[in-house]
Amino acid sequence: MHDPHVILKVISKFLVPFIALFAFYVQFHGDFGPGGGFQAGVILAAAVILYALIFGLDAAKKAFPPSWVRVGMSLGVLLYGGTGVLTWILGGDFLSYGVLAHDPAHGQHYGIIAVELGILCSVTNVMIAIFYAFGSRQPEVDEDNW
Amino acid sequence: MSFMPLFPQWIFEQGPAFLIVLPLLMGAIIAILPNRSMAWWFTFFVTLICTYTAFGLFQHIYFDSFLLYTMGGWAPPHGISLIVDGLSAPILLLISVMAMLTVIYALPASISEIEPKKRGPFYAAFLICFAGLMGMVITGDAFNVFVFLEVSSISTYALVAMGAARDRRSLAAAYNYLIMGSIGATFFVIGLGFLFMETGTLNMAEMSAILSDLDGGTRVSKVGYGFIVVGLGLKIAMFPLHTWLPRAYAYAPTKITIFLASTATKAAIYLLLRFTFTVFDPSFDYISIMLKYLIVGAAVVGMVFASFQAIFQSDVRRVLAYSSVAQVGYILLGIGIATSSGLAAGYLHLLNHAIIKGCLFISVGAFWYRFGITRVDDFSGLFKTMPLTMGAFTLGGLSLIGVPFTAGFVSKVKLILAAAEQEMWWAVLVIVFSSVLAIVYIGRIIMAAYFGSPPKINGSTFTKNEAPFMMLFPMWALGLMSIAIGLNAFGIGDTFVSASEIAASVLLGGRG
Amino acid sequence: MLSLLLDQYNYAVVIILMMTGLYVVFASRNLIKKLVGLSIFQTSVFLLYITIGKVSGGQPPIVESHGSDHANSETLLFASIGEVDSVAQSSSEVLYSNPLPHVLILTAIVVGVATLAIGLSLVVRVREVYGTIEEDKIEEYDRIYYKEILERQ
């Protein structure tokens, strides 16, 4: 048990759930106050990236597989666009959330939540994808020769 | 001929948003599609449906009235609006037709250019780039223009870099394009910031109303216009800002070169027109000075200088790339003249040049597909080995020069007439001189192809080795199109001319 | 002159950052440094927009619900998007900063991140292919490499 990073590991293990929780707080606060999918997505991605930095890329890839990332990126866009397509099917203009419920104000509410979820999904996965893409490259120079 | 009954009412109501949403969402779907061979079919059908929709919208503009679409039902100026009018509809149709032909060409070309693993992402990026270009042209919100500009540009950088499998110089070319393109987009957004500072709105129609109330506005909007012109100039490859273009065109995968050459710069020119004439007004003194000296000056110098550079290139794709810079000069000259006939001529040349350059680049791409080389010397004897490809190249080349009965002739004559109307005799001279230079650089290639003999490899000459049908079809479609415009067959030429006149009237007439 | 500069110091900061970024892009021959310059350049634009959105003495533009009724706040929000002008007039005693530039800049930041990511990934590929990220060396290698290919033909 001579892990040099023991403090970092313990602290970050403690922090990661709170970062994720904060991300969701920002996310679900986003339809009425400051917040929203962009910020929440970046914060959520930061949780995964912190985990990857401390425990290594392989551990992070086990916790959050790259195949999810690829699907998640597109899924977010489809969730956003799908909301618009749904409003088309319900007979409104593209992204006119008013038609989503009987009361237009409620419709607005549901629409924004769906769209923000789409943004969260895309932004989180894109951020993680960028991190994985750069992190997985094999360094040409040995770690010791830097 | 009106084809209006062929289109359901839904197209006219929701078509503007549909044109952006469909390629964007399908791009996202293709990115996660497990079966890669499906990607091409998806892309093809998306471009086909978009062409159908854009044609419907074009018909609506041509025979009826312009369309205003409110995103999410929020009325402008607070909401984002999409505008399809006489200015944007022909360009929408142009972009979707070129995208469809490029996709047809891309099926055989992908086999040798793109690794199988990257074909899914390739088509996804292609569709997103396509969606960005459509969005840029259709939107009526100034900041939205920036977003779509970057959507299309960023995917273009990735697409250009995919040429690395074939030619490693494409990486540096894509990087260079990225730096110049981002600076251009950032300049554009700085300009928008100044405009927003002055007018307090981002809706183009609202902006234009406020600016004309202010009689052109203060120094803030002048500076803003300057930034916008420089930013768009980088995207257009206006003469001194064109340095990224030849490398990006020469080293990108051939199908991306085709698509970029015939659409990306055209959409940027559309934005320049939109901002100069409908958001601002050419009657403001700073706009007229800018048009008269800067745009015309850049156009004229570019026409001569880039044509000279084209003559001295050894790679055919670089010849054509420099020729694109020169042809942008013609279009800008028409815009700079700023009369109704000048604008119509510039707009017509924009459409014609897209068709001509598409045809030329597809021919060169087909040649590359068969032989893997594109130097001018390599074209020697090509007429004997690839007669059909060379035939289409000749049609495109003649049209580029402006030989009578071709599309290039129609628009160049109109341009000369427009310049003569304003008694800009020196401009007429430059147009003619630059066309003579075009004879030299196109003639050089055609001479080699017709009179040279096929090179001998291992002692035996090449036999006939024609391009596959999937490549011949788009190149001949475009080649015959340019002849049809020149001969006014089936009234196509008249349709083009009147479409350009409608566009000019939108630019100069009331704010529509 | 000095007081003008002090009053509008954020514009001075914007201009300094903008010019620094642009200079770095054009002056350096290292691919990474160019991207750093580009990022600085883009950041200056973010600051410019945020400066535009500031209304002196303005409150954060959040519509607060005055009643305990949840639906009330919802209709207020709905109204505040659709009829901005009328709400602004009716509650003219509260001065809000303009939120629009912040929203725009959020988009521009995302665009900037995407550009940077693409740029960096291109640099990674360049490094893998050429073994260098100095522009001069890349050009030199290309010259030698393609000359050899031509001679071989």
How do you describe this structure in short?
By secondary structure, chain A is mostly helical. Chain A has five helices and no strands.
Summarize the structure in words.
The complex is a heterotrimer of chains A (146), B (512) and C (153). Chain A is 73% helix and 0% strand. Chain A has 146 residues and is an all-alpha fold. Chain A has one domain (6-145). Chain B has a domain at 292-512. Chain B is built from 19 helices and four strands. Chain B has helices at residues 9-32, 36-63, 88-113, 119-138, 142-161, 169-199, 204-213, 219-236, 244-251, 254-279, 285-311, 316-337, 340-371, 382-385, 387-401, 407-421, 425-451, 469-487, 492-508; strands spanning 67-70, 81-84, 456-457, 460-461. In chain B, a hairpin with a 2-residue loop joins strand 3 and strand 4 (460-461). Chain B is globular and about 70 Å long. The two termini of chain B are 24 Å apart. Chain C starts with a helix and ends with a helix. Chain C is an all-alpha fold. In chain C, helix 3 runs antiparallel to helix 6 (100-130). Chain C has one domain: Helix Hairpins, CATH 1.10.287.
How many domain modules of chain C?
Answer: 1
Largest interface, counted by CB within 8 Å of the partner chain's CB: B-C, 29 and 37 residues
Mean pLDDT across all amino acids of chain B: 87
What is the straight-line distance between the termini of chain C?
67 Å
Contiguous helical run count of chain B: 19
Indicate the topology.
The complex is a heterotrimer of chains A (146), B (512) and C (153).
Chain A: H1 6-29, H2 37-55, H3 57-63, H4 66-89, H5 104-135
Helix pairs in contact in A: 1-2, 2-3, 2-5, 4-5
Chain B: H1 9-32, H2 36-63, E1 67-70, E2 81-84, H3 88-113, H4 119-138, H5 142-161, H6 169-199, H7 204-213, H8 219-236, H9 244-251, H10 254-279, H11 285-311, H12 316-337, H13 340-371, H14 382-385, H15 387-401, H16 407-421, H17 425-451, E3 456-457, E4 460-461, H18 469-487, H19 492-508
Antiparallel strand pairs in B: 1-2, 3-4
Chain C: H1 2-7, H2 9-27, H3 31-53, H4 70-82, H5 84-90, H6 100-130, H7 135-152
Helix pairs in contact in C: 2-3, 3-6, 4-5
